[in-house]
Amino acid sequence: MAVQRTLVLVKPDGVRRGLIGEVIRRFERKGLKIRALKMVWLSREKAEEFYSVHRGKHFFNDLIEFITSGPIVAMVLEGDEAINVVRLMIGATDGRKAQPGTIRGDFALSIQDNVVHASDSEESFEREFKVLFTEDEVVPPY
Questions:
Q1: 103-113 residue pLDDT tens
Q2: Active-site residue among 5, 11, 26, 117?
Q3: For this structure, is 54 an active site residue?
């Protein structure tokens, strides 16, 4: 068993549509533990830092505009193989192609309005986590 932590965001479209509870419910029912949770409205500077890996790509500015268009809910989840488990649960980035039963398959409206973001690797988690949380905001196992 490899216990991992991963970062999940409920994006502005998910917050506007009232899907925060549904997203959290799915992860908790799967057995993942919430170690940190907060609602924030990202500044442009924080958003650019968060999505720095996409800087220079044609969709970068649209991505920044979207993620700063409203509040997000950020959470750190922990569990066995949490990164892969969460990625399977959220589905393909393009919600129109995501499998039914996944978060994006059930709720996403487009490739941009896809409700959630999740770290895709341990390296991504480490980079993304530092933009939104500090270690003392993470609750230890209980």
A1: 999 999 999 99
A2: 117
A3: no
